[in-house]
Design brief:
disordered N terminus; alpha+beta; single chain; eight-stranded antiparallel β-barrel
Length: 118
């Protein structure tokens, strides 16, 4: 087996348990805070903290991340600043699969980012 085939096989095997789990929608601020309070959100190169007071802090790819958030009509709504770049206000659907949260932009119809709870 080539190294490429071995890596592909390993990736598929690791992905199977995650795919087999059902994603649960997080629909309330209290449910969301129960998951993230005292924990960070991580992805390769990204470390974020969502604070109960509506602030977001962290780092991504060597740059500071700041922002603010609120919970509106079942969605996590936020504005983020990464270095000098602004990511404008966007309300996102949040789902959970194990220790991973998926934030899907545009009220669940746009792009997504998966972040691991730690």
């Amino acid at each position: 087996m080539t190294l490429r085939a071995l890596c592909l096989s390993a990736c598929l095997l690791l992905a199977l348990p995650l795919a087999a789990q059902d994603a649960a929608r997080i629909s309330s601020r209290s449910g969301f805070m129960a998951l993230v309070q005292g924990r960070g959100l991580h992805r390769l190169g990204v470390q974020l903290t969502v604070h109960p007071d509506g602030q977001i802090t962290g780092r991504a790819f060597g740059r500071e991340v700041t922002g603010s958030w609120s919970w509106k009509e079942g969605y996590f709504c936020r504005v983020l600043y990464w270095g000098s770049r602004e990511f404008p206000w966007n309300c996102q659907m949040v789902t959970r699969r194990g220790e991973e949260l998926r934030f899907r932009s545009d009220r669940g119809t746009g792009e997504w980012a998966d972040l691991r709870l730690r």
